[in-house]
Amino acid sequence: MSSQDNIVNKVNDPEVRKAKADHLKKTFKSGLEKITNGRNNNKRKAIFLKVINTVLTGSAMIFLGLKCIGYSFWGVVQNLLPFIFISLATVINAIEPFFTYRAFWVEHEIALWHLHKLIDKFKYYISGINNDQIDLKILDEYEKEYIDIWNELSKNWIEHRKRAEY
Question: Angle at Cα 107 formed by Cα 157 and Cα 152, nearest 5°?
Fold first, then answer.
């Protein structure tokens, strides 16, 4: 038996087909976890910056409003707090575009959408067929689509980083 025949026999082996399908399933699960974690991390940071910025500017407006209507407390501190809060909000607004957490959050949402579609197609294909019916070419197409999802996410990440440089 030649090595070429050995390769053909392995490719036609139902256990090899099942092993490749199982590997793809694990790869999809791992990718789903990574993208979900990235999305959640960027979402948390984007929301944190937005909330802090809103609290700082809102507090500054309250202190200025109280001063305008003649309500006085803490003396000099009352005059400094709005200035400090607005200064901090300005710094946050200045650095927020550099980190682009919101954009990365959105990019991860898009990647998750594509990955969920791919996983659904894969599950539909695998369900109800025997191991010897699994087409390795179709599995290769699913793997290529998975790699394309990661390539697109990485490409978009690089583009956002390039735009964030000053």
Answer: 60
Residue 47 belongs to domain spanning: 3-164
Number of domains the chain contains: 1
Query: How is residue 65 written in tokens?
Result: 């409003």
Burial class (CB in 10 A: 0-12, 13-18, 19+), 28: buried
Assign residue 130 a region (left: φ > 0; alpha: ψ between -120 and 50; beta: otherwise): beta
CB 101 within 8 A of CB 45: yes
Locus of tokens 């050995």? 6
Instruction: Output the pTM of the full model.
Output: 0.79
Residue type, position 69, single letter: I
- State the burial class of residue 161 (Cβ atoms within 10 Å of its Cβ: 0-12, 13-18, 19+): middle
The model's pLDDT over 12-28, given as tens digits with 9 standing for 90+, comes to: 788 999 999 999 999 99
